[in-house]
Amino acid sequence: MSTALPDYRRKQIRPVWCPGCGNYGVLRGVEKALRSLEVPAEQTVVVSGIGCSGRFSHYLNTYALHGTHGRALPVATGVKTARPDLTVLVVGGDGDSLGIGGGHLPHAARKNVDLTLLILDNYTYGLTKGQSSPTTPWGCVTKTSPYGSPEDSLEVLPVLLAYDVSFVARTSSLQTEEMAGIVTEAMGHPGFSVIHILSPCVTYPVLGWKVLRERLAPLPASHSPGDKAAALQLACSRDLIYTGIFYSVQKPTLDARLQQLHQSALKRYSSSGKAPSIPSLMERFI
What we know:
Layout: H1 23-37, E1 44-48, E2 63-66, H2 72-82, E3 87-93, H3 94-98, H4 105-111, E4 116-121, E5 124-125, E6 131-132, H5 156-162, E7 167-172, H6 176-188, E8 193-198, H7 209-215, E9 216-218, H8 228-235, E10 241-248, H9 254-272, H10 278-283
Parallel strand pairs: 1-2, 1-3, 3-4, 4-8, 7-8, 9-10
Antiparallel strand pairs: 5-6, 7-10
Helix pairs in contact: 1-6
């Protein structure tokens, strides 16, 4: 199947992000990735939460669910578990994914759910008018920290690596071509994939375009994505912000493990001479 690039854009709904918002670049990069993978739109589900990134699911011509704040990952896990044949993409901001929704990250990681999470990080709560977020730098003046943020910012990639997310990458909305390639790799990876995307907010510019351009650098060509220790060291860089695929390993997905359990249960019942059925299962609890 070959799907034209415009077919992935929902023509009835136009994006309403602020002019110059980095999310436009992310949307373009995702469209390019879908086109590259030739993913059928009717076999794709985009799940998002609250915030500027929450609108993302409105703009793609796929099945979509715009859920509540911080709950995109568990909803997407349910979708993928019920329908493992679907391609599931999750989109959240730094607040949605790392603040109120941050508690779901380690569990999606340990389950190794076969879906892709995009964290659109602008270092602030843009939709609710510029409050501090989990990634706001220490000392930054915001609506909720008029004398400077008293908290350290969350180091996103080291956290993901510590959770042993099976695919960890970083890019920015300045790098549409690189982003499209990374999203393509992530969506083709069997397991939980997380891409940290730096996407500046032009209305509340805690993360500025100029500073981002000056600090971005590609991962060293010698870096091996299978080396977690090296990935962690590069992720902790204070001067340069490295982009690329930091970590990628193969391990059983949640669906594969559930299938194995299913087969084990069927084998147990067939050896007992009883055909598996709902009533026979219920007998065990009576």
